[in-house]
Amino acid sequence: MALTVENALLDGERVGVRCERGTIATLGAAVTSEPGDETIDAGGAHLVPPLVNGHTHAAMTLFRGSGGDLPLMPWLEEKIWPVEAKLDADDVYWGARLACAEMLRSGTTRFWDMYWQPAATARAVEEAGVRATIGAPLFDLNSSPEELRRAAHTGLEELEGFGPHITPALAPHAIYTVSEESLRWIGELSAERELPVQIHLSETEKEVQDCLAEHGERPAFYLDRLGMLNERTVLAHGVWLDPDELALIAERGATVVSNPVANMKLAVGGVFPFPAARTVGVRVGLGTDGAGSNDSLDLFADLKTFALAQKHAAADPTAIEAEEALAVATGAQAPLLGATPLEAGAPADFLLLRKESPELGIGDLVSDLVYAASGAAVATTVVAGRVLMRDGEIPELDEILARAAERAGRLGL
Amino acid sequence: MALTVENALLDGERVGVRCERGTIATLGAAVTSEPGDETIDAGGAHLVPPLVNGHTHAAMTLFRGSGGDLPLMPWLEEKIWPVEAKLDADDVYWGARLACAEMLRSGTTRFWDMYWQPAATARAVEEAGVRATIGAPLFDLNSSPEELRRAAHTGLEELEGFGPHITPALAPHAIYTVSEESLRWIGELSAERELPVQIHLSETEKEVQDCLAEHGERPAFYLDRLGMLNERTVLAHGVWLDPDELALIAERGATVVSNPVANMKLAVGGVFPFPAARTVGVRVGLGTDGAGSNDSLDLFADLKTFALAQKHAAADPTAIEAEEALAVATGAQAPLLGATPLEAGAPADFLLLRKESPELGIGDLVSDLVYAASGAAVATTVVAGRVLMRDGEIPELDEILARAAERAGRLGL
Fold first, then answer.
1. b/e string for B224-238 if b means 16 or more Cβ within 10 A?
2. pTM of the entire structure?
């Protein structure tokens, strides 16, 4: 069945959007509902593109609040790893369902995920109706590269059984947890099968110092030497990238995803150098990181923090403007991330904003989306032409909340 | 009529709250509705104290988005001051009504305001049912101290005609816009009539350097010498206070209100030194500043940014913990700000959280309120025993939005 949204506001003009077979068939002032269509009267609500969460660990909603206010290593060693060792597929499924609900609620319809039991996350994503690029975290500190290779292939096979909303990826955890040999074959596998690769890079200053000490080069150069830096690569964090690394990343066409809230919460001490990255043309996206270290998955909130952190770090209020910050959060600035523009032929993924929002209606919409709104400004969310949230209501939310809380309880969280 | 809230969750226990004549008459497990009471079944929703916005310029909702991404002085000179010269009482009234709606929506029931046409703001506050401490900004750069004194008295008389929800205050703008002579008599008037004083202090490093150059002492010492630093004083910003100033402020019992979002947006380059302030016992509150430089009035968002900015500035994730950050935002840490604790005899001001909040329900509630929630987590807001928002619905919101937009349009904003 086709879905038609009538009477929406796009760039100040009244428009309709007709969605057929998951894509935007027509969009414009003349578009109206046809007989048999499911129809939404937007009542003059703003139509805007959804956000893309470029880096998260969805099922870590179960770990929300578990960070206490701890530093990174005690947090991982005392709170996260012992519990992760006990996770089963149902834990991950309900944690990821909760994450999907929170992201849907706040205007994110696509995310990049790195977590255990990736098939359980994929199942949750399909049930929720959203989209995700998913990879199992690959470590080989305690296993041979050969064992890791088998694990990677098994993970990919499981993910390849899903539908078009799931994009399988390779997710080597970091340069300090994956051997040089494994990074090399992961790069080759990515090239051979055209698979996206997600990796944490340059999150802490220690990582950079260790890389220099061990390999004699900075992290981006090390990755590049192993064939891991190209237009299929998403580098999460990038806090300590220097100008030479940024120039190399731009040249290779790789994407950096900034996670300002998690970086500030874990107090890594720096901020991804966006102005320098912009100068050389790096593709940039925005991520929440996991709910264990944020602790929210509302990317609108992180969008504001991203802009504030850039201005603060530069001691310059002009360091970033609202429009470019928004382009980072929608994924429009980094093609790999999978932005969905509002145009005929594109996937029918979009948001309708709440009309009764005290924070909207006075300022410029783009500025207000960045600086005044939270995800609560979103009333209705459509993905692939399906209405996944209508007037703030998400089907099955009560059950999702109850089941996720039950799983967290089981884990002693 | 009495209001009774049944079946709420407070610190993990089911409780009822009965409100009579604007105060909490009884609170506890045994409290239930009596015949004739207005009754709310909270259905197991969390009952929490509201937040206090310690520094704002409410009517500046009309200026939302007008900051562009400009530095402070061009923003003031090009965007703000020319328009402020044209403001009438109705502009301020509707701007302040919009601000009250946005604050109510996001869990703030009391605010400290400094703005033109203070009686119009007071009228808006009374209509909205919330509470505010209000002062007209006092400047004497272009007038004599005698003219300023007359203006101050006129402003106070207007504000004293309002009911108990309005607390009149003196609001000298800053040490660089009010003469030494005027600061002195403002301090005397405050002492004589027991009036609170709000002043911007140490927002930019330039202000500190200018104060040192002109007066040979840092801003807090200068204020103290003029009799302006005491338990009635609220210092907004305090970004550049040094340890000696913090010790003096603590000794005098004055309150510092941090405005982390506005400070980062205007990129003043620093962060209020909370850990140092805590060490010497300074009373601390949290403010949004005006919507022109934030651009939101959702103090829950600023609460998270406050904690993140402290951790980031200290490069230490333990620099502030969730519980102390929340105490700053509720005003519990600074008696002057007017916190409303949840206990019998206190003003009947409280919030009920939304049960269907994906971001709540897994973690510890205090941690989630600080790091995971936005103001959208608030479902119902009660002030003085009156239900001002029920299940997210604010009466007259449509009219307020329309009238505020009309006033902003009239002003060319």
1. bebebbeebbbbbbb
2. 0.97
